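Quick one before lunch.
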Amino acid sequence: MGKKFVRAIFPGSFDPITNGHLDVVRRAINLFDELIIAVGRSPIKNQLFTPEERVEMIVELVTGMPGVAVESFEGLMVEYAAKRKATVVLRGLRSLTDVQYEFQLAMTNRAVAGIETIFIMTSEQYGFTSSTLIREVASLGGDLSNLIPENVHKRLEERFSRLRTERS
Ligand code: ADP
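Model of the adenosine-5'-diphosphate complex:
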């Protein structure tokens, strides 16, 4: 029997992508034939970057990684996964708090769509890296060079210096 082609989807807000997300992507590539990084266009979440900007930043980072694609999606993630014929959802885990939430999410997704979730544990140096904290620290001008890629760092600086001038 031939080997089955496995396409996985890595859904998230990626507002913005961090070295923690990238580390999960790099380690997951070897497990699947194709990996789609799927940027959610959630109307509810408070977003710093538009979905287009978030996709652009990720594309800059994964160009040249074989088998990795970047897309954005609207609506239910499991419906999007089905449309793209992805059979696995990839998620990252940082802490026990993540486990609690992700456990519920994975159970729900399996119940409603029969899709399996595979988790990759963070590398210890990124265990505390979250997009929310990155946005907060960047807004206060903190040094984030170890936690986010250079292109993201530049965009954050641009965004916050613009916001500061708009406000003053
Ligand atoms: P969401 O809003 O769907 O949680 P995020 O962009 O915050 O989207 O995260 C997407 C996925 O990446 C989630 O599974 C999250 O737990 C995981 N993740 C975020 N930061 C890290 C990190 N530093 N290490 C490992 N996984 C991470």
